Amino acid sequence: MRLIWTIALAALASGCAATGAVPRPFPIPGTPSSPAPDNSTGSAVPARPGGIDGYAVAGTALALRGAPYRNGGSDPNGFDCSGFTQYVFSQYGIPLPREVRDQYRAGKPIDPSDLAPGDLVFFATTDPDVSHVAIAIGGDQFVHAPSSSGVVRVEHIRGSYWASRFVGVRRVN
User: Fold this and answer.
1) Catalytic residue (one of 58, 67, 81, 134)
2) Residue 40 lies in a domain
3) How many domains does the chain have?
4) Beta partners for 136?
5) Is the residue at 24 inside a domain?
6) Domain CATH number, residue 127
7) How far apart (Å, rounded) are the C-alpha atoms in residues 25 and 155?
8) 3-state per-residue secondary structure call for the chain
9) Is residue 132 annotated as part of the catalytic site, yes or no?
10) Mind listing the pLDDT tens digit of every residue in the chain (173 residues)?
């Protein structure tokens, strides 16, 4: 049993690699393939100030649950963490850099207590610096492409593994 846990932890810690590939915005049924719609029609889900609807971004990310992890992947056939976030935001016409560290420098720093759906959440999994990125979906949950042995899935920021590796939050609009 100890061996299984060791392998599982090693897989989770196997950071997110990126090759510099540019995501192609493949349409996915039930998700937007163009910039987010204008919410001025009285929608129950308001857009964040100055930009996109974070709930819509979270919904697009959630629709990709189960997509396989692929080192350097940036499309629904396989994602690494930064390819996943770049792809999701590209569905709303929001360009994100390809590398995790560059995504961390993008956007506005947000106090963790103000975390909202659609925010980027960063962790240090393989380096003392940021090495993993995910998309907040509400509460203390996020969706991400975790590792070579996983698929796009939801996890908790306050979980023991992630809480000890949390670095910060950025909001891009």
Assistant:
1) 81
2) no
3) 1
4) 142
5) no
6) 3.90.1720.10
7) 25
8) CHHHHHHHHHHHCCCCCCCCCCCCCCCCCCCCCCCCCCCCCCCCCCCCCCCCCHHHHHHHHHHCCCCEECCCCEECCEECHHHHHHHHHHCCCCCCCCCHHHHHHCCEEECHHHCCCCCEEEECCCCCCCCEEEEEEECCEEEECCCCCCECEEEECCCHHHHCCEEEEEECC
9) yes
10) 443 333 333 333 344 544 343 333 333 333 343 333 333 333 333 445 557 899 999 999 999 999 999 999 999 999 999 999 999 999 999 999 999 999 999 989 999 999 999 999 999 999 889 999 999 999 999 999 998 789 999 999 999 999 999 999 999 98
Residue 163, domain member (yes or no): yes
Among residues 98, 132, 165, 171, the one annotated as catalytic is 132
Residue among 48, 98, 144, 165 flagged as catalytic:
144
156 in catalytic set: no
**Residue type at 27 in one-letter notation:** P
**Does 44 fall in a domain?**
no
